[in-house]
Amino acid sequence: MKVISPPRKVQANINWKKKSKKTGRIPWFLILFLGYLTAFIYCFFFAGFFEVKGVEVSVGDSSIEPILKKEAENFLNTEFLPFIKKRDNVLTLLISGSLTSLENSLKTDSPKLVDIDAHINLFGNGMLNLSGSIRKPFGIYCDNTNSCYYFDRDRLAFEPAPEVKGALWEIKDELGQIKIGKPVIEDPDLYTKILEAHELLKNFNNLKIDYFLIPKGTVGEFWIKTVAGWSIFLDRTVDIKTQILGMNAVLGKIDQNKKIEYFDLRVQDRIYYK
Fold first, then answer.
1. Which fold has domain 54-134?
2. For every residue of the chain, which 3-state class applies, written as one string?
3. At what angle do helices 240-251 and 188-201 cross, to 10 degrees?
4. Which pTM value belongs to this model?
5. If we measure between CA atoms, which residue out of 231, 211, 235, 204 comes closest to residue 222?
6. Rounded CA gap, 220 and 68, in Å?
7. What's the rounded Cα separation, in Å, for the pair 105 and 55?
8. CATH class entry, domain 139-273
9. Rg of the chain over CA atoms, in angstroms?
10. How far apart (Å, rounded) are the C-alpha atoms in residues 113 and 199?
11. Sequence spans of domains, the chain
12. What's the pLDDT tens digit per position in 75-97?
């Protein structure tokens, strides 16, 4: 059977009508798409479904917890995108790595922190939880400006210290000057020698130490002031254990009524006293 095509004018009219129908559908599709997009953006960022509700802090120190909470709140209230705050959506914090940035910022601003972990329970109460631990005072360090700081076992100065040291041992440094967040004593080898002497002497019942001193005008030396008022002179080049044990042996032979002025242990295998 032969198929007869419609005249050209009729075919053109049919094609125009089909094209008009397609063109008429596009605005409705765009409106529908934009409607879904608007609803998605509203629910995702502005409806509060994924909003961070607040901040909870637990580091074991009530003096620092309010400071950490305030800094975290300020961080959440900064803009992630124009008109969108970081707290508006939990997922943006998780995906963008913002929580890691917050942890690093808190540790930099609060040297007292050993570590800090920021996490959000997506299926919980929607709170930002900060948990961690703080540094414990190991000793007191006073620099050449008479400013004193607590330092931990890693020799990091993390907090101003009062003049009364109590049960903690003390280092007075007439050469150095530090800031919070920095290690005490620039020379780590010298600190190691002082720490070794401290660990040895604290076990002697017949000898009580007042403080350790790094005197000005010296290199590599440190002195120890006893509660009794006399001094011990040491140098980082000697074997600390050998010299101190030798001094203790000599000390046991000295008449208790004899007044001692000093023990000089700066020469290896030699013990001088007066």
1. Ubiquitin-like (UB roll) (3.10.20)
2. CCCCCCCHHHHHHHHHHHHHHHHHHHHHHHHHHHHHHHHHHHHHHHCCCCCCCEEEEECCCCCCHHHHHHHHHHHHCCEEECCEEHHHCHHHHHHHCHHHHHHHHHHHHCCCEEEEEEEECCCCCCEEEEEEEECCCCEEEECCCCCEEEECCCCEEEEECCCCCCCCEEEEECCCCCCCCCECCCCHHHHHHHHHHHHHHCCCCCCCEEEEEECCCCCCEEEEEECCCCEEEEECCCCHHHHHHHHHHHHCCCCCCCCCCEEECCCCCCCEEC
3. 30
4. 0.75
5. 235
6. 40
7. 16
8. alpha beta
9. 36
10. 26
11. 54-134, 139-273
12. 888 877 676 677 777 777 766 67
Spell out a b/e string for 161-184, using b for 16 or more CB atoms within 10 Å of the CB, else e: beeebeeebbbbbebbebeeebeb
For tokens 């080898």, the residue is 189
Structure tokens at 196: 């070794």
Please say if the pLDDT value at position 33 is more than 90. no
Cα(89)–Cα(76) distance, integer angstroms: 10
Mean pLDDT (the chain, rounded): 82
